[in-house]
Amino acid sequence: MKVEGILKDKGHEVQTVGPDTAVVLAVDRLSSMQIGALVVSGDGKRVEGVISERDVVRGLAHHGQRLLDLKVSEVMARHVPVCSPDDSIQEVMAQMTRTRNRHIPVVHDGQLYGLVSIGDLLKNRLEELELQTNVLRDSYISRH
Predict the structure, then answer these.
(1) Which of 1, 66, 73, 109 could form a disulfide with 19 if both were Cys (CB 3.0 to 4.6 A apart)?
(2) How far apart are CA 101 and CA 104, in angstroms?
């Protein structure tokens, strides 16, 4: 299966935040929306980075309480991997493992197209395994 299949199920909506937004506001959005990351984009189309819960924790360790007054651009991950809707789930899982990123923006024709998380990929994989198990069980039962 490809990334596009996941986006068809979950949708293409991506929560973004501008690079000049105060970290305290980004943290509030992460918390209130119960999400793990926001794509940083000044125009909602171009990926400039990602700010995740992990970035906030690292920022607290480095800046202390002062973190909340900083801009998102000062603590976000700048060089984030991206994927295409045509990439396979296995490729993206391998990329997440290699780069230790749990959220990867999906880019199509140079513009933000969606976001996939490790949770999205695991859900898809578990559904595939359940389907395979059911097919094998049905095949076994029909032969006996």
Answers:
(1) 73
(2) 7
pLDDT range class, residue 131, cuts 50, 70, 90: low
- Cα 8 to chain centroid distance, Å, stands at 15
pTM, 2 dp: 0.86
For the chain, the structural domain boundaries read 3-143
Which pair of structure tokens corresponds to residue 65? 């309480």
Backbone angles phi, psi at 142, to 5 degrees: -70, -20
pLDDT surpasses 90 at 130:
no
Contact 115, 103 (CB under 8 A): yes
- Copy the structure tokens of residue 111: 């513009």
- Rounded (10°) angle between helices 89-99 and 118-143: 140
Q: Which CATH class is domain 3-143?
A: alpha beta
In the chain, the N- to C-terminal Cα span, in Å, equals 32
Tokens describing residue 49:
């980075």
